[in-house]
Structure formats: C-alpha cells, structure tokens
C-alpha cells in the first residue's frame, strides 16, 4: 500500500484483516471469493478491490459469499452496484450467501438486482 498517512494505513490493514478476497479470472467469468465481514470498516478495502476487478471488464462477475459471515446494507448496495460495470443485461451473481446475508439482500430489495446461486 502506497500510503504515507499511518492512520489511514492502519485502518486499511485492520479492514484487510477482517475480510479476505481472492480473485479467479476465467475466459468469460471472474469469480471473487470474499471471506469475513462486510461492513462500514471493511467497505473501503472491498470497494477498491472490486474496482480493480471491474477494470478487467469481466463478462460475468460471480461474488462467492460462502465464507461471508456478515453483510451490512451499505456493503450490499456496493456489491449490487458492480452490475453497472457489466455488459448490458448482465447482473452480478451472488454465490452461496448465508441465510443472514441472503436476508439482508431480500429485506433491502437488492436481491432483484442480482442473481443468487444456492
């Protein structure tokens, strides 16, 4: 991380410690595996990582939330907003969300803006 402000760097490091992301790039599908908690503290880190993924212009984006234990409303909106960077007619795919994560998507109505794979 090229940041000179130790407070900003410490917050980013702490956020990165609460969430982990792995990216698998395929021919037409990019899969992002997200583990941990997605909340106000981790959102800047996750947002930046997703921005980098979207720069590759994937045809299909799968967000595997199998190991995501918590998702707040702001993070849910951020994830669904990735669809704006996908080709026309494509929506982000949320793979294997926990019942709690799925419930947040349903309560916010954001499940209508993504595909959910069980």
Give an account of the 3D structure:
The chain starts with 5 loop residues before the first helix and ends with a strand. The protein has a five-stranded mixed beta sheet. The protein has a single domain (about 5-115), classed as STAS domain (Transcription Regulator spoIIAA, 2-Layer Sandwich). It is globular, with a radius of gyration of 14 Å. With about 120 residues, the chain is α/β, with parallel strands linked by helices. The chain is built from four helices and five strands. A hairpin with a 3-residue loop joins β1 and β2 (about 30-40). Residues about 1-15 have low confidence and may be disordered.
Layout: helices, strands, pairs:
Elements: H1 6-18, E1 19-25, E2 29-38, H2 43-54, E3 60-71, H3 73-81, E4 93-95, H4 99-108, E5 115-117
Parallel strand pairs: 2-3, 3-4, 4-5
Antiparallel strand pairs: 1-2
Key features?
alpha/beta; about 120 residues; globular; about 30% strand; disordered N terminus; Transcription Regulator spoIIAA
Order of H and E elements: HEEHEHEHE
Helix content: 25-40%
Low-confidence stretches: 1-14
Distance between the termini: 35 Å
Q: What value does the average pLDDT take? A: 87
- Beta content comes to 25-35%
* Tally of individual domains: 1
Q: What shape does the CA trace take?
A: globular
Number of DSSP helical runs: 4
- Order of adjacent strands in the largest pleated sheet: 1-2-3-4-5
Radius of gyration: 14 Å
Main sheet properties = 5 strands, mixed
Strand-pairing-aware structural class = alpha/beta
CATH topology: the name is: Transcription Regulator spoIIAA
Can you identify the CATH superfamily? Answer: STAS domain
What is the C-level CATH assignment?
A: Alpha Beta
Q: How many runs of DSSP E, i.e. beta strands?
A: 5
CATH architecture: 2-Layer Sandwich
